[in-house]
Amino acid sequence: MNSVTIQMRQKGIITLPVELRRQYQFNEGDVFTLIDLGNGTLVLKPATSKVAKYGDEVGRIMAGEDVNLEEMLQLLNEERQEYYKDHYVNP
Known about the structure:
Blueprint: H1 18-23, E1 32-38, E2 41-46, H2 50-63, H3 69-89
């Protein structure tokens, strides 16, 4: 587990380091859940999983295309394999 120091700015704004935003593909507008563990310990985690996000993205792309269920499942499988490779094989 890595640790990074960040500073709270005006109105409680904090900025996630660019390295983490790139690593986890966080984008402007992403929603997070802040969990208070007590004693000033906080955990920040994405409110939606990347798998759900990718599924929504594929659905939007396919919405206007003439694609059958088998083709869509193949595309989703390819996305899943790419996600696995990016996050578990070559993190």
